[in-house]
Write a structure and sequence with these properties.
Helices cover about 10% and strands about 40% of the residues. It contains four helices and 26 strands. The two termini are about 35 Å apart. With about 375 residues, it is mainly beta.
Length: about 375
């Protein structure tokens, strides 16, 4: 044990990078001062937990405890509602602050920001109308100002889905046809934006730039899913999350069951999209992966050990009344959070830091 306590920092750094369980990271970083110093010098690629507030937006580092040095955040992170996150420190936000009112893209690492329109263009047979809109959740395909940057949003407006790219002065609504009736979450996978609704229905969208280099068209595909429906128990809420698997080969749907009578979240189920005629959701053996789930911020990571049971970390982002109610909250609790191990389906671990309710936004994963 004495020899292990003095391992060379390069070896220790490799060990820490293989630890995907927050609890294991914390235990390893408390072995001694040497291990703790190496842990903090070699932060994991796993996301940080962002806790927004008008008073102070804070982040929680995977290694160590709440007193450890935290990643620097720009003051622009205080006050807005966070609607989604992307790698590189980017977020889609909705702000009521006087200095920046409306929607935008914000990078908490660099302070960069890009204003987003607050209106959506809806083509009709009689012409085109524009309507005000409010973003509930949104994801990005790439960081701005890349030509590959597109943003897809679940909205509260006359249209359920809207799309934007740099240079547009207005969002473009989803094409006429199938749209998720009660969209719960969306993700970007294999060149398509995918949205899931409260009936497990799935619709995918692919924005494409016209030959003139400025116009935008949206291709779409409605999956005729075969017979998969969930009957929730009385008083139970079923929340859905979409994300690519750690390898990127599969599109996953995570179903979270929240029962107030049982104290909150009590189980999860993970499904994989099985394309075919017809397509279907098939139960997924989530081994060797750790999933961080949250609306418009979910991401999967390879644990480095294919035989290990899968693990899910989850945030407090489920409210009575469904996803639309995220716009109607006076405060956002941070109590129903934790971890769930695939091999112990009936046990929820209280492994994330407690925080008082936020007055601006649910917690969100910060992909640095």
């Amino acid at each position: 044990m004495a020899a292990a306590a003095g391992l060379h920092q390069d070896i220790l750094a490799r060990i820490f990078l293989l630890l995907s369980c927050i609890a294991d990271c914390v235990r390893a970083s408390t072995v001694n001062k040497h291990w703790r110093r190496v842990a903090l010098q070699n932060p994991s690629q796993l996301p940080w937990l962002l806790r927004p507030s008008t008073a102070r937006t804070d982040s929680y580092r995977i290694f160590g405890g709440l007193d450890d040095p935290r990643p620097p955040l720009f003051d622009l992170g205080r006050g807005p509602r966070f609607c989604g996150s992307a790698p590189g420190g980017w977020f889609v936000i909705s702000s009521r602050q006087q200095q920046w009112r409306g929607h935008g893209l914000l990078n908490l690492r660099t302070g960069e920001r890009v204003a987003l329109p607050d209106r959506v263009r809806i083509p009709l047979d009689s012409g085109v109308i524009t309507c005000p809109m409010m973003i509930r959740a949104a994801v990005m395909s790439a960081a701005p100002p890349s030509a590959a940057c597109f943003v897809a949003a679940i909205t509260s407006s006359q249209t359920n889905m809207a799309f934007w790219r740099p240079g547009m002065d207005c969002w473009l609504s989803a094409p006429v046809g199938p749209t998720p009736r009660n969209a719960q979450d969306l993700t970007y996978h294999d060149g398509w934006f995918c949205a899931v609704d409260s009936d497990d229905g799935l619709v995918s969208y692919k924005p494409e730039i016209g030959a003139d280099g400025s116009s935008l068209t949206i291709r779409h595909h409605d999956y005729k899913l075969d017979g998969h429906r969930t009957q929730a128990a009385l008083g139970e809420i079923v929340s859905r999350y979409l994300l690519p698997s750690a390898s990127g080969a599969d599109l996953l749907m995570v179903k979270r069951y929240v029962a107030p009578a049982k104290g909150g979240t009590w189980k999860f189920q993970v499904y994989r999209l099985q394309e075919g005629q017809p397509a279907s959701w098939g139960l997924y053996q989530m081994t060797g992966q750790v999933l961080f789930v949250g609306w418009a911020c979910s991401k999967a990571f390879d644990m480095g050990h294919a035989g290990n049971p899968g693990y899910i970390y989850f945030l407090d982002d489920v409210y009575p009344g469904g996803p639309h109610s995220v716009l109607q909250q006076n405060e956002y609790p941070c109590a129903d959070t934790g971890g769930w191990r695939y091999s112990v389906p009936g046990e929820i671990e209280d492994c994330l830091p407690w925080a008082p309710p936020s007055d601006t936004s649910p917690c969100i994963w910060y992909h640095h």
